[in-house]
Each structure stands twice: as C-alpha cells, then as structure tokens.
Amino acid sequence: MDEKSLIKKLRNLSKDKSISLNLTDDAAVLQDFIISKDILIENVHFIYRNNLNDIILKAVTSNVSDIAAMGAEAKYLLLGLGLPDYIDDADLLKALEKALDHYKLDLIGGDLSKSALLFISVTIIGRKNKFLLTRKGAKPGDIVFVSRPLGKSIYYLNKELGGDFVTEHYHLEAEVELGKFLGTLPFVTSCTDISDGLGVDLASIADTSKVKIIIDKNKIPVAENISVSTDEILKSGEEYALTFTIDKKYYETFLKIVPKKVYEIGIVEKGSGVFLKTEKDFLEISLYGYLHKT
C-alpha cells in the first residue's frame, strides 16, 4: 500500500476535521497554532556518512517547510531520536543547535531511545498568520507559481547514490520569508511545498480543490549548473520550494509586491488531475514524484 492510500484510510480516525483538515494538508491547525510532524530514517531518507549536521538540518527543514506552506511562522520544536552507538553526543548537540539557530526555533521537548539505525522524529509548532494557506481553494482561472528553480535535490541525490560525497541536497532552504508573506495575502488560493515532487504535490492541490492544473513545460525553472531531464524535475522531491496559486484578478498586484522572484508555471482549469503542456500534447503528471510505500 502506498502512503496516499493509507492516509485515506486514516481519515476515518480523525474526528475533528477543523484541526486535522481531514489529513489533506501539510500540517494540522489547533486554534492559533500550526503543527507539523515528520520522520527521517537512516537508509530510507538519508545515508549516514558522518554528516550529522546535514541530516539534522534536513530533518528540521522538512518540517519548517510544511509550516511555511501554511503561511505560518515556525516557532517551537519537539524532537524524538533513536540513537545508534556511533552517534556522538557532542556532535549531535552541535548539529541540533546549528539547525535550531538557523530557523530561530526553541526546543521544548521530545524523547530519546537507543536504536540500531539513526531515527529522527521532528514535530514543529508554528503560529498562524493572518490567512491560513491550505491545499484547498484553487479555482479555475488561478495562476500557478513556484518559488524558485528546481532540480538540485534529485541531481545531488543521484550523485550521492552514485558514490560521490555531496551535501548540497541537504541544504535546500525552507521558504520561510515567502511563506510568511503569502500568509498575509487574501488572494493566495492554495499552497503546498514540494516535498515529494512537483507532479505529486500539485496533484494534492488539484485533488483537494477538485480542479485540473496545467503546467507549461517551457516555464518550469531549472536550477543553474545542473543537468536534469524534465522527467527528473517533475519527480524531484525534498526541494522545499513552495508551489501556490493566485487569484488571477490580483495577478499584477501580486507581481508588484512579492518580495522575491517567483515563477509562473501554469494555470488552474475545470476538471481533475495535473497535466504537463508540451510542444505536441498534454501529459498527465499527477503521479510524478516520490510515492511512499508502507
């Protein structure tokens, strides 16, 4: 069973949909707080090569990115660790302090245990902004954006899997400031972060909003100094860029006030699914990305 199918079954266990958002979004909403949870497991999500700083930063970034995707600001962190004997306490403390300082987070609790492999569980609590951004709300006519060029994650991951000692893919930043900015705007109709791949993550917006999304192949921005195919770009997870939709009536206003360069890549239409517009036809890309197995 894949993650998406299991989550659908888990929705029956969620009683208060106003908090869980029916398990359809990046985080839960509890009054004025946004709560995100993620786990990273050695040899599943990362390869341990005495690069604890990189791994801890990635674990924290993954959750901060979820908070940013809701338009909120990450504030507090709870940490669960399964620690094998080869993890040095002093190195762990330094890595954690560095990651907390990087995102201005306060460690408020957690749990520790021995483990055969390194296991990291992070819960981050953020404060809700003026507007709550979710995956539900995109409507026909909305313009689709992505926050930055893509492809670094899959490019450097492939290098690492090929035996190169590279760390660039561990250092992709959560879009903290852009997320907070988008959370102040009434015309951002949906938002998510690219954690599993552009195709899959846009499909989460299309499915939840009950719309079709069309992406123009020629408009997808590609990071500099890498060589990747369109297929790889669409499937590149753990990019931590934001992809979001804007009400077309506010398109010009948005471009004037957005504090950083963002990239228009498509449009929302009636229908369902996510499609890539090429020179010849339309290719459905709703499943382009990492589909977790359970």
Automatic annotation (TrEMBL):
Signal peptide (residue range): none
Keywords, sorted A to Z: ATP-binding, Kinase, Magnesium, Metal-binding, Nucleotide-binding, Thiamine biosynthesis, Transferase
Name of the featured protein: Thiamine-monophosphate kinase
Keyword flag Transferase: yes
NCBIfam families membership: thiL
Gene3D superfamilies xref list: PurM-like C-terminal domain (3.90.650.10), PurM-like, N-terminal domain (3.30.1330.10)
Catalytic activity: thiamine phosphate + ATP = thiamine diphosphate + ADP
Occurrences of domain PurM-like N-terminal (ranges): 25-127
Transmembrane segments: none
Pathway involvement of the protein, from the record: Cofactor biosynthesis; thiamine diphosphate biosynthesis; thiamine diphosphate from thiamine phosphate: step 1/1
PANTHER family documented for this protein: THIAMINE-MONOPHOSPHATE KINASE
Pfam families: AIRS, AIRS_C
Binding site for Mg(2+) 1: D38, D111
Domain PurM-like C-terminal, first and last residues per copy: 139-276
EC number per UniProt: 2.7.4.16
Binding locations of substrate: H45, E238, Y290
Top-level EC class as recorded in UniProt: transferase
Role summary: Catalyzes the ATP-dependent phosphorylation of thiamine-monophosphate (TMP) to form thiamine-pyrophosphate (TPP), the active form of vitamin B1.
Keyword Methyltransferase: no
Record: residues binding Mg(2+) 3: D26, D66, D193
Originating organism: Deferribacter autotrophicus
Binding positions for Mg(2+) 4 per the UniProt entry: D26, S36, D66
Residues the entry annotates as binding ATP: G110, D111, R135, S195
